[in-house]
Amino acid sequence: QVQLVESGGGLVQAGGSLRLSCAASGRTFSSSAMGWFRQAPGKEREFVATISWNGGSTYYTDSVKGRFTISRDNTENTVSLQMNNLKPEDTAVYYCAAGRSRSINTNIGRYDYWGQGTQVTVSS
Hints:
- It is a single chain.
- By secondary structure, the chain is mainly β.
- It has no helices and eleven strands.
- The strands form two sheets. Strands 2, 4, 5, 6, 9, 10 and 11 form a seven-stranded mixed β-sheet that branches. A four-stranded antiparallel β-sheet has the order 1-3-8-7, with no helix packed on it.
- Strand 4 and strand 5 form a beta hairpin.
- The mean pLDDT is about 95.
């Protein structure tokens, strides 16, 4: 029902910035909360940020608060993650996900659709 494609990853030095984008297709996008998750090699996939269906509510994991900003444009069917002041510990594959409901959610189990991921590497 929903297909997601991430882009914008790359290699940056610590303190640098990247903007990730997720292009969505499918009839449920505009009524679904969206999330960004990340997964480092050998680690569990973890929550990063979420945004409600209309962009009215956002929530971030503590480690990225003040540095990352999630946004969405339902007209363009896109969700973005602006990442500033990147740290080496931010290195991971970042995934865009579409939720089951309209409200923000940090629980990976509440997301039904996932993109293929985009690599973010932050050098020290």
